[in-house]
């Protein structure tokens, strides 16, 4: 089977919702053997997403991070913003924010443009750890400096964090700002 045909097969298996953990690992290994042309990172993203959506208890976050580290970058299989977003989310869900921020650094080092979807798990993790000031700094300072305008989901994560930390004044001020400037969010 050729690379593109196999990629179509992998994507269909992922879309089916019936992909098993052992099958996903086998498909990943098989994808690594294709050389000319190399498989698209999009197909790997399908696999990673399927692994984290599997219904069993562990959701396989650690497995996704391990597979991410096995991607053969010298063969042209380089992570894209979606790949990094999946992995950053995995880190945040297992309370490894340090690793999540390291992945954000790699994304930027790879000269990829960060999007709000990359920051959302970081914001949720910071808020969950009651690091609200850092989350607010990310929304109001770091994201704009990186050319990434916060979106509605970014603000919602911060508002939820404010409420969880019983900083209702900040939450209501931000909510009021969003309402009065709704065309800008």
Keywords:
elongated, repeat, 185 residues, TPR-like_helical_dom_sf, mainly alpha, mRNA binding, 69% helix, PPR_rpt, transit peptide
Strand content: under 5%
| Largest sheet descriptor | none
pLDDT averaged residue by residue: 92
**N/C terminus separation:** 47 Å
In total, how many beta strands? 0
Helix content: 55-70%
Protein name: Pentatricopeptide repeat-containing protein
GO molecular function: mRNA binding
Keywords: Repeat, Transit peptide
In short:
Helices cover 69% and strands 0% of the residues. It has 185 residues and is an all-alpha fold.
Produce the secondary structure layout.
Layout lengths: L2 H14 L4 H12 L8 H13 L7 H9 L11 H13 L3 H13 L6 H13 L3 H14 L6 H13 L3 H13 L5
Helix pairs in contact: 1-3, 2-3, 3-5, 4-5, 5-6, 5-7, 6-7, 7-8, 7-9, 8-9, 9-10
Pfam families: PPR_2
GO molecular function, one term: mRNA binding
InterPro entries: PPR_rpt, TPR-like_helical_dom_sf
